[in-house]
Amino acid sequence: MASAGLTSRRKADEWIKAGRVKVNGQMVNELGARAIWGVDRIEVDCEGIPKPSARLYLLLNKPFGYMCTLKDPQGRPLVTDLLRDIPQRVYPVGRLDFDTLGLLLLTNDGEWAYRMMHPRYQVPRTYKVTVTGEITDEAIRLLKKGVQLKDGPTGRSKPTVISRNPRQSILRITITQGKSRQVRRMLDTVGYDTVHLIRTGFGNLTLGDLKVGEYRHIETEEVVSLKKMVGMV
Ligand code: URA
């Protein structure tokens, strides 16, 4: 109710206690009862609350050479420059480096963005990474166990080798935190230089057929399942 702009959180609690709120036709008198805005029918004094049409959840296939910031002092292209017909101000959920490609989420839902990035929720992010040289089984073992970076340990990861030869190796790696340049730094720690990095998955989402530079709205069911992952539903 507060998110829909009807009242403050405190007043919303009072309305619930006063028996003025129904979810799917049932009166709610328990504070903290769960309902999904936009999915469940939420009524105050028998009137439906406005739909969350102002909430936007986008999945973009970020090209090389774009910044995930809202401004760049050097005037480089911004990921938000790629958005057309999106009047609301949205911002990236975390960052991909200038030279990283792939799956980037954008939203104007601050609580969701915060939780998706918070290490407590361990939302998996999957990358396809190309490194120079032939990666050893020992390096894979270290990546699995997690490595020590200068800003702390990374926690375990799930690396799998897609191909390797003395010139280069291609891996898929899933991590559950989003430290700055984490994948590049993990590989660097075990002795390999990253030459290409693309994020292919985030939570239950994958890039699918989305072309580089294109974006799509995330479906309501996908948003609900992502919200479940971060304890919002
Ligand atoms: N890890 C990196 O090193 N870079 C990114 O852009 C994302 C994850």
Quick overview:
With 233 residues, the chain is of the alpha+beta class.
Named CATH architecture of the largest domain: 2-Layer Sandwich
Question: What's the number of extended β-strand segments?
Answer: 15
Q: Level of helix content?
A: 10-25%
Q: Would you identify the CATH H-level superfamily of the largest domain?
A: Alpha-L RNA-binding motif
Number of helices: 5
Question: How does the overall form come out from the CA principal axes?
Answer: elongated
For the record, the CATH class of the largest domain is Alpha Beta
Structural class: alpha+beta
Cα separation of the termini:
15 Å
| Low-pLDDT residue intervals, each spanning 5 or more residues | none
Question: What small molecules does this complex bind?
Answer: uracil
Strand content: 25-35%
Query: How would a textbook summarize the main sheet?
Result: 9 strands, mixed
Account of the 3D structure:
The chain has 233 residues and is an alpha+beta fold. The chain folds into 3 domains: 9-48, Structural Genomics Hypothetical 15.5 Kd Protein In mrcA-pckA Intergenic Region, Chain A (Roll); 57-92 and 102-119 and 210-229, Alpha-Beta Plaits (2-Layer Sandwich); 124-202, Alpha-Beta Plaits, CATH 3.30.70.1560. Helix content is 19%, strand content 28%. It contains 5 helices and 15 strands. It has helices spanning 9-17, 110-117, 137-145, 182-189, 220-229, and strands at residues 21-23, 26-27, 42-44, 47-48, 57-62, 91-92, 101-107, 125-132, 148-149, 152-153, 158-164, 168-175, 194-202, 205-206, 215-217. The strands form 3 sheets. Strands 5, 6, 7, 8, 11, 12, 13, 14 and 15 form a 9-stranded mixed beta sheet that branches. It has a 4-stranded antiparallel beta sheet with strand order 2-1-3-4, with no helix packed on it. A two-stranded antiparallel ribbon has the order 9-10. The longest helix has 10 residues, at 220-229. It is elongated. Uracil binds at residues 96-97, 100, 181-184, 197.
